[in-house]
Specification:
18% strand, 30% helix, globular, 79 residues, alpha+beta, two-stranded antiparallel ribbon
């Protein structure tokens, strides 16, 4: 697992995410879609008012060609 704080461009070790029922359902549906798709696909889960967003993806550390350089560094170095 890797967590990137995009606002501060740094790796994060722990987060708490508070979701409404509809946001949790959207996250569940996004994960199901990713599990059925090729590795590297990502999904965006937005708050009900679209003010906040979670981006989630499934990765294989041996197949990173579809990721940008920042994401590769996070995955490989957790930095």
């Amino acid at each position: 697992m890797r967590i990137l704080d995009q606002d501060n461009d740094r790796s994060v070790g722990s987060v708490i995410i508070y979701l409404t029922n509809s946001e949790a359902a959207e996250l569940r549906d996004s994960i199901e879609q990713m599990l059925a798709a090729p590795i590297g696909r990502h999904e965006h889960v937005s708050s009900n008012d679209y003010a906040k967003e979670i981006t989630v993806c499934i990765y294989d550390p041996n197949r990173l060609e579809q990721f940008d350089e920042r994401s590769k560094r996070l995955i490989l170095e957790d930095a």
